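re: that chain from earlier
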Amino acid sequence: MNDLPANSSQRGVGLTVRGLRKTFPGGEVLRGIDFDVAPGEVFVIMGPSGSGKSVLLRHLIGLMKPDAGEIRVGGQPVGPPESASAYRLAMVFQSGALLNSLTVGENLGLYLREHRLKTPAEIVRIVAEKLAVVGLKGQEDKLPSELSGGMRKRVSIARALIIEPQLILYDEPTSELDPQSAALIAEEIVNLQQRIGVTSVIVSHDREFVFGIADRIAVIHEGRILAVGTPAEIRANPNPVLQAFLNVDFKFHPLKSNP
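^ sequence. v structure.
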């Protein structure tokens, strides 16, 4: 994460992945991953358990270094999270990763406060603005334990917005949520794209969620990209492995008018 620029724009940045490979003692996990994400796109990576989704996500964040290949965000190579970069990237973790001993407002303002990027008054204002964006106005004084699972996920999204990101990575954002809460998270992600043009890359196995919000979907299987396309293109893809994973009988309710 970089220090916030004085007049920051939250327009999204593109992402390029080329020839990504990663091998562990148990075998090769990523086997030549290639895909592109356009600026401002909602791009979803989905696939069965053990397909390489989590390892791929760690590479996108910069927590892992590939054995071969490269990742570029806004044309710049991805480095470790603490490295200086020309883009602003935020992560929404599956668990929410909120500090239970801090209030919602304190969780959101922690980065700005510890790095002395804003005055206390400015932090209060920014925290209130970001909570309002995700529909949680006035929740600053609550503890995470006082919130529902869906509200905690929305607080995590609000915290990601604190740095005015150009790219947000989501790890299973609807995990352990009831259908109504999952639908609210889906709406928030789509709203962020429409309001500020941020690029969203989402790792998820929730098919209804994925087909409801994605501009494009990449299906990963055994460390390779099986297919990339719009929801309609993925549904129509005749690949038997892909169709077996999708289980074509599932229902979905798109939030976007995808072709």
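Residues 173 and 184 are 11 Å apart (CA to CA).
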